[in-house]
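Batch manifest, entry 17 of 40.
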Amino acid sequence: TNRTTDAIKLQEEAKKIREEAYFKDKDRWLGDYSLILNNLAGSYSKTNRIDEAIKLQEEALDILKEAYLKDKDRWLGYYSTSLNNLAYSYYETDRIEEAIELQEEAEKITEEAYLKDKDRWFGDYSTNLNNLANSYYETNRTDEAIKLQEEALDILKEAYFKDKDRWIEDYSRCLNNLALSYSKTNRTTDAIKLQEEAKKIR
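Output type: structure tokens
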């Protein structure tokens, strides 16, 4: 649509301005610049300009990886999101193994953070567990998927009982995903129990 085209033009202009600022003072502008790169990449993806989107996402990831390695606590969330954004685009272009590598990295770094501060990172960590589990499931690595889904379910079950409105969608989705994996491995009784639980909380 014309509005989407106009929005992309504005984002491209913003990128140009921030890019100049970033290369003059990287430490000050890397957060803004990487965000603009990822936002523009998202717009390109929506308009089927996936190759251009990937180029921007790869640039954003390189910037954020460097920032993360210098200050993990500050940049972890941004870096993890950037890993997942690029992984999604790789999936869209059938670069499945590369996508999984990125998701494994996201899962690994958020696990480290979660083990140090569970209250702060359980949401990000459970999301990354489920993202990676879905990829394992789709590539017939079902036993590995189940292991991740079970861990995510334990985390989200606790979160759900603390704040049902906030976590019902995530908990319900996790129940159904694990049920699918159990069904795929002929654990039908276990799958039915989870489906009944998902139905009960809706």
